Amino acid sequence: MPRRVTSLAPPAPLAALCFLALAAIRLPSALALECDEAMTGFHDNEIKSQAWQDIAHANVQAIRDAVADDPCYAMMRAGDGRGPLFWAHEFYNQEIIDVLVHHGADRAARDRGGKRPDQMIRAPPMTFEAPPADDEEEYEYEPDDDDDDVYVTKSSPPHDEM
Question: Which segments carry the region annotation Disordered (predicted)?
Fold first, then answer.
């Protein structure tokens, strides 16, 4: 009886498909090598400040647009070593976390203090209040019958009357 030899290696087409699938999964991480210092360096700039604002205000669409325009956005780091993934954990926004991880954000990254994104203390919810209204001067109108009303304020008298 002839001896049957079995190979432990998968058929060539299956192996190629597996390789392409793994390469596609790792593609955003590979792009991190191409990111410039302006994005990944531990320093602050307007782009990073805007990213923090978008994440703090749960502006998911802005984050999606930003990583679509520049995949390095997911890997950027601010002066304290934190970046979008840290902030998304801080504000506990799972949707933004998923978007960033999908685009190559490093879950094992460490900030200057040695913390990982998932070790961030949850920030209190952002509440939006209208700014206080300026104290508008109240006006009293002197009674008259014509249309040229004179305004008298309750504020202090003009400088020349003091």
Answer: 108-162
